[in-house]
């Protein structure tokens, strides 16, 4: 059983691509080998900045010989048929055998395919793997046509067993596979030969290369931890940074440095972000002061001066970077203390989206909406509005300009510097939450109001300009915004009718467009005679009421449509945009229905992750009040629990059966059976029992629903299961006796109505 | 940090790079005689990266980025600075080693320093060009940009050029151990008249910063932009056959106008008179010019072979 070793040696592979490349190499090669009939015991992939490596152990030496028998034409068939068969099998007539078959004598062919040696298969598979490797971005180099992530320099491809190792003969665009590789670029640059994976890994280590990225990560984590410990500090854990750094070095040498005193007053997030983003440094925290006071940089080399030159250089670069940061911080603080008016002003010229206005417009809308939402979530409206007005001002700060990922974080610092209350400052930091599905959901009322307003404005805005997510495309992260709304409502148990809030948001937005539209058009009409003519003509083309209104405006103007006064211009502009607002308001209902069904879809995804079936959610969404997300979730949870019991499953059957019989009868008779079931017409004991059960269950369900005690409602309806089952087992609904039949159909109606109070059971599957 | 091998002045760093790349067989060209934002704009790079002809050149290119002006006060930022540019087509297999040799030549020994190739893809929206490569880090500082050109002016580069760009001031400051660019020795500090970078450029940085930010006549610049754009288009559309019946397409004169438009756009940007949405449109207009020049250069090259 031979082992296979592959190394693809190239110029530096981007760190972020290495993990995926390891998986792809393993998958493509092993799939190819297995597809060609080989089997293997195990496989492992590795990467360093300069190499991508695969080891496959226990590979079969050959693919198996296969034997296939194929049935041909009858022996008395025309020659042409036989010739065709010979062509398709590649055999001659004397290699065929004739045997009796159901239809008489028939030719049979046996096609044997000889197994192939593993090295042939490996050569083919590796060639195709290299040529078709799914790099996120690949390139050509020199005069060649091969594509790789960066220039590919050598291929090592070895099959080895007890007898020794052999190079798999393979040449890709002039690069012939061999058994040599190189060590560390500077510390061990010479080529050396290897015989197999163990030999390879061991020699690489002597040549200053740690092959396994996880081992490099561990080495960095441990050495950095030790360096910090020696000073009484601790490293701020950052797994993403660790993985990236491990992808930048073959021979990690962590070095610790101290941050100059003059930078220690910078917010820790600023220090950490600057060091991480620009320099890929780990931050070291002093637990006694709680501050970030040091850093660890990871070099790729051991030097005669133990890294002194490297550390000094890094320290210098850091000082330059932090000087910039300190400059931004001081300037920003000055602006914050002055009230941040300049930032608010500046956001007027920052486009949020060309159809949705500036960031300032957006803040205006969010503030108005937060004010409306505030009472629903127990927040003070003034505070919610103020928080919304401040929440995004840091987008104009120099620090956020430099480090966009600090948006919000800086906003909180600046709001506090401006003398704002904690609740308001917190909103600046946290109103973007929750971003990811595992992020914490804000709970403070002011924060909930602003966070909801932010997301709902985004959703209604992009819905209005028809920029909805399609398939995998969601450039404005609307699914994330929808999930945010859902989690904010459910996890805070916040009750509101979402439809009303969506209308509110639309109304605010339409109002804003109206105001700015009127303002702009008024100016334009005064200046631009042709535009005025065109606008009036357009208005004239509208319906009667409008024309009448317009005549009223222009009457004073003696048979001319020339606009002379600002008041007149404003009125024409108002008529013009009033028309728009009217149309948009009309369209709002459809738009909001559509948006609501998108939110319902996201709610389904969310609840499905909590183990609630989609059909159950559909059954609940068919009930009134489906825009109260908390209510929907609670109903669905209770229904889900009931449907997992025997009673629940059978009850569903009973309710559906009742519904079906009723629907058929109503269809046939053309009437609705909805009233007047009377126990006195009951003929059987089971029928009477069902009447009795309904007498108890109906008020109980009603009471439970009214108090939103859904588990109690479920219990109450579950009590109907046995009587309904017994009824259907013994009673024929459609009897010839018309009074009895009508009475029974009306009884079925009571069952259906009882179910309807809880959910639309026809939507429940099974 | 000091060793006998270390250069002692800004100009010595440049001279050593010139000697080194000359020794590697590059033609040492002179700067292009127009205002450009980066060494890449020199036709020796932009245009020569196109077509099938082999090419190897190195040169210093004075570069202007009006928005980076800081009145000579910032230790690292300048509106006028120097780039050192190397371009070799096809990119040789040992280009990384050649590059490391150039660091040794200016006194940066990779056995003592931490030299790393960190992913950085290069893209020039105004030139319609992109390539893959790295920024080269020395002890955590970016000292060069290393790019394998994949496309220029919308054309695939075949063969591929390897391009190296050194930010000379920053690199030299590091090599010389200087904290503020204006303090950096320009010539030999022991010369009869020792000059610092500030002696040469402090006043000009102040003057240009003022002009770039506050004074440049924007109406005139808008007009110049339109003129350059129109002239570029006119040259590109001109009949390649002249009055004497000679076929002489004029990709290079047209490209000069594209460079000019690009620089004027940068000036307008520094004056803050181009809005975010207009910005994209201007970049698109310059790209269209550069693409037209690239198209004409490629057809001319094809006709020559």
UniProtKB/TrEMBL annotation, chain A:
<feature type="domain" description="DALR anticodon binding">
    <location>
        <begin position="655"/>
        <end position="752"/>
    </location>
</feature>
<feature type="region of interest" description="Disordered">
    <location>
        <begin position="59"/>
        <end position="78"/>
    </location>
</feature>
<dbReference type="GO" id="GO:0006420">
    <property type="term" value="P:arginyl-tRNA aminoacylation"/>
</dbReference>
<keyword id="KW-0030">Aminoacyl-tRNA synthetase</keyword>
<dbReference type="GO" id="GO:0006426">
    <property type="term" value="P:glycyl-tRNA aminoacylation"/>
</dbReference>
<dbReference type="Pfam" id="PF02092">
    <property type="entry name" value="tRNA_synt_2f"/>
</dbReference>
<keyword id="KW-0547">Nucleotide-binding</keyword>
<keyword id="KW-0963">Cytoplasm</keyword>
<dbReference type="GO" id="GO:0004820">
    <property type="term" value="F:glycine-tRNA ligase activity"/>
</dbReference>
<dbReference type="GO" id="GO:0004814">
    <property type="term" value="F:arginine-tRNA ligase activity"/>
</dbReference>
<dbReference type="GO" id="GO:0005524">
    <property type="term" value="F:ATP binding"/>
</dbReference>
<feature type="compositionally biased region" description="Basic and acidic residues">
    <location>
        <begin position="66"/>
        <end position="77"/>
    </location>
</feature>
<dbReference type="InterPro" id="IPR006194">
    <property type="entry name" value="Gly-tRNA-synth_heterodimer"/>
</dbReference>
<dbReference type="Pfam" id="PF05746">
    <property type="entry name" value="DALR_1"/>
</dbReference>
<dbReference type="InterPro" id="IPR008909">
    <property type="entry name" value="DALR_anticod-bd"/>
</dbReference>
<keyword id="KW-0648">Protein biosynthesis</keyword>
<comment type="similarity">
    <text>Belongs to the class-II aminoacyl-tRNA synthetase family.</text>
</comment>
<comment type="subunit">
    <text>Tetramer of two alpha and two beta subunits.</text>
</comment>
<keyword id="KW-0067">ATP-binding</keyword>
<keyword id="KW-0436">Ligase</keyword>
<protein>
    <recommendedName>
        <fullName>Glycine--tRNA ligase beta subunit</fullName>
        <ecNumber>6.1.1.14</ecNumber>
    </recommendedName>
</protein>
<dbReference type="GO" id="GO:0005829">
    <property type="term" value="C:cytosol"/>
</dbReference>
TrEMBL record, chain B:
<keyword id="KW-0963">Cytoplasm</keyword>
<comment type="similarity">
    <text>Belongs to the class-II aminoacyl-tRNA synthetase family.</text>
</comment>
<protein>
    <recommendedName>
        <fullName>Glycine--tRNA ligase alpha subunit</fullName>
        <ecNumber>6.1.1.14</ecNumber>
    </recommendedName>
</protein>
<keyword id="KW-0067">ATP-binding</keyword>
<keyword id="KW-0648">Protein biosynthesis</keyword>
<dbReference type="GO" id="GO:0005524">
    <property type="term" value="F:ATP binding"/>
</dbReference>
<keyword id="KW-0547">Nucleotide-binding</keyword>
<dbReference type="InterPro" id="IPR006194">
    <property type="entry name" value="Gly-tRNA-synth_heterodimer"/>
</dbReference>
<dbReference type="GO" id="GO:0004820">
    <property type="term" value="F:glycine-tRNA ligase activity"/>
</dbReference>
<comment type="subunit">
    <text>Tetramer of two alpha and two beta subunits.</text>
</comment>
<keyword id="KW-0436">Ligase</keyword>
<keyword id="KW-0030">Aminoacyl-tRNA synthetase</keyword>
<dbReference type="Pfam" id="PF02091">
    <property type="entry name" value="tRNA-synt_2e"/>
</dbReference>
<dbReference type="GO" id="GO:0006426">
    <property type="term" value="P:glycyl-tRNA aminoacylation"/>
</dbReference>
<dbReference type="InterPro" id="IPR002310">
    <property type="entry name" value="Gly-tRNA_ligase_asu"/>
</dbReference>
<dbReference type="InterPro" id="IPR045864">
    <property type="entry name" value="aa-tRNA-synth_II/BPL/LPL"/>
</dbReference>
<dbReference type="GO" id="GO:0005829">
    <property type="term" value="C:cytosol"/>
</dbReference>
């Amino acid at each position: 059983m031979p082992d296979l070793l592959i190394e693809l040696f190239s110029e530096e592979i981007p760190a972020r691509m290495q993990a995926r490349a390891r998986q792809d190499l393993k998958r493509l090669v092993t799939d190819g080998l297995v597809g060609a009939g080989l089997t293997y015991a195990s496989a492992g992939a590795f990467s360093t900045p300069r190499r991508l490596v695969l080891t496959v152990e226990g590979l079969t030496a050959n693919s198996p010989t296969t034997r296939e028998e194929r049935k041909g034409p009858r022996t008395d068939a025309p020659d042409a048929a036989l010739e065709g068969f010979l062509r398709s099998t590649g055999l001659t007539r004397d290699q065929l055998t004739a045997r009796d078959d159901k239809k008489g004598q028939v030719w049979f062919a046996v096609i044997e395919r000889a197994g192939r040696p593993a090295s042939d298969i490996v050569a083919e598979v590796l060639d195709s793997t290299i040529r078709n490797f799914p790099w996120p971005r690949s390139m050509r180099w020199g005069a060649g046509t091969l594509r790789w992530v960066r220039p590919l320099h050598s291929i090592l491809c070895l099959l080895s067993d007890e007898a020794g190792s052999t190079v798999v003969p393979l040449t890709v665009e002039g690069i012939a596979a061999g058994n040599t590789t190189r060590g560390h670029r500077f510390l061990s640059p010479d080529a050396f030969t290897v015989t197999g994976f163990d030999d390879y890994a061991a020699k690489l280590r002597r040549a200053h290369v740690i092959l396994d990225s996880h081992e490099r990560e561990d080495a960095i984590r441990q050495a950095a931890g030790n360096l910090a410990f020696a000073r009484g500090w601790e490293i701020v854990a950052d797994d993403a940074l660790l993985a990236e750094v491990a992808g930048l070095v073959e021979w990690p040498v962590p070095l610790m440095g101290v941050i100059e005193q003059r930078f220690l007053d910078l917010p820790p997030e600023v220090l950490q972000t600057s060091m991480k983003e620009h320099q890929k440094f780990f931050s070291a925290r002093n637990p006694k002061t709680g501050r970030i006071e040091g850093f660890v940089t990871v070099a790729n080399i051991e030097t005669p001066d133990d890294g002194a030159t490297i550390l000094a250089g890094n320290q210098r670069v850091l000082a330059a970077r932090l000087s910039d940061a300190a400059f931004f911080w001081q300037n920003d603080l000055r602006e914050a203390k002055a009230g941040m008016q300049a930032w608010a002003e500046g956001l007027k010229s920052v486009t949020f989206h060309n159809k949705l206005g500036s960031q300032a417009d957006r803040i205006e809308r969010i503030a108005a909406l937060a004010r409306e939402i505030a009472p629903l979530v127990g927040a003070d409206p003034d505070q919610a509005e103020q928080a919304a007005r401040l929440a995004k001002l840091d987008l104009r700060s120099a620090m956020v300009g430099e480090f966009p990922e600090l948006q919000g974080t800086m906003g909180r610092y600046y709001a506090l510097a401006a003398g704002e209350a904690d609740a308001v400052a917190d909103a600046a930091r946290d109103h973007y939450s929750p971003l990811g599905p595992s992020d914490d959901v804000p709970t403070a009322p002011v924060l909930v109001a602003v966070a909801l307003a932010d997301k709902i404005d985004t959703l209604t805005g992009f819905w209005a300009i028809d920029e909805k997510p399609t398939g995998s495309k969601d450039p404005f992260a609307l699914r994330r915004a929808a999930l945010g709304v859902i989690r904010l409502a459910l996890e805070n148990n916040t009750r509101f009718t979402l439809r009303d809030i969506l209308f509110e948001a639309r109304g605010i937005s339409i109002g804003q467009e109206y105001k700015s539209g009127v303002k702009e058009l008024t100016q334009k009409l005064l200046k631009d005679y042709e535009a005025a003519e065109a606008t009036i003509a357009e208005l004239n083309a509208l319906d009667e009421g409008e024309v009448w209104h317009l005549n009223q405006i222009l009457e004073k103007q003696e048979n001319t449509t020339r606009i002379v006064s600002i008041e007149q211009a404003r009125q024409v502009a108002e008529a013009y945009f009033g028309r728009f607002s009217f149309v948009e308001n009309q369209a709002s209902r459809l738009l909001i229905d559509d948006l609501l069904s998108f939110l319902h879809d996201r709610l389904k995804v969310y609840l499905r992750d909590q183990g609630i079936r989609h059909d159950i959610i559909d059954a609940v969404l068919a009930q009134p009040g489906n825009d109260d997300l908390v209510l929907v979730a609670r109903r669905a949870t209770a229904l889900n629990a009931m449907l997992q019991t025997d009673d629940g499953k059978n009850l569903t059957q009973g309710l559906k059966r009742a519904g079906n019989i009723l629907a058929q009868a109503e269809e046939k008779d053309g009437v609705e059976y909805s009233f007047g079931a009377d126990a006195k017409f009951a003929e059987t004991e089971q029928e009477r029992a069902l009447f009795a059960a309904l007498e108890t269950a109906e008020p109980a369900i009603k009471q439970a629903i009214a108090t939103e005690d859904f588990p109690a409602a479920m219990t109450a309806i579950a009590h109907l299961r046995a009587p309904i089952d017994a009824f259907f087992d013994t009673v024929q609904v459609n009897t010839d006796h018309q009074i009895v039949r009508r009475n029974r159909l009306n009884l079925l109606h009571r069952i259906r109505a009882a179910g309807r109070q809880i959910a639309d059971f026809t939507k429940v599957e099974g | 940090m000091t060793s006998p091998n270390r250069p002692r002045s800004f100009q010595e760093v440049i001279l050593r790079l010139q000697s080194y790349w000359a020794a590697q067989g590059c033609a040492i060209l002179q700067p292009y005689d127009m205002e450009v934002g980066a060494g890449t704009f020199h036709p020796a790079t932009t245009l020569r990266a196109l077509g099938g002809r082999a090419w190897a050149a190195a040169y210093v290119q004075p570069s202007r980025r009006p928005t980076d002006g800081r009145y000579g006060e910032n230790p690292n930022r300048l509106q006028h600075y120097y780039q050192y540019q190397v371009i070799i087509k096809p990119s040789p297999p040992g280009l990384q080693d050649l590059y490391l040799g150039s660091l040794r030549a200016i006194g940066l020994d990779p056995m003592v320093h931490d030299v790393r190739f960190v992913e950085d893809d290069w893209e020039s929206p105004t030139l319609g060009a992109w390539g893959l490569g790295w920024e080269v880090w020395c002890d955590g500082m970016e000292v060069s940009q290393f790019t394998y050109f994949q496309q220029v002016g919308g054309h695939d580069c075949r063969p591929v050029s390897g391009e190296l760009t050194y930010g000379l001031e920053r690199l030299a400051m590091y090599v010389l151990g200087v904290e503020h660019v204006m303090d950096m020795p320009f010539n030999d500090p022991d010369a009869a008249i020792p000059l610092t970078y500030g002696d040469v450029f402090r006043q000009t940085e102040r003057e240009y910063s003022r002009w770039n930010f506050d004074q440049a006549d924007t109406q005139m610049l808008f007009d110049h932009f339109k003129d350059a754009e129109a002239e570029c288009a006119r040259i590109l559309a001109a009949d390649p056959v002249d009055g004497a019946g000679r076929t002489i397409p004029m990709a290079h004169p047209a490209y000069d106008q594209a460079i000019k438009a690009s620089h004027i756009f940068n000036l307008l940007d520094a004056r803050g008179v181009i809005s975010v949405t207009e910005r994209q449109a201007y970049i698109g207009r310059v790209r269209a010019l550069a693409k037209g020049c690239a198209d004409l250069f490629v057809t001319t090259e094809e006709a020559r072979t």
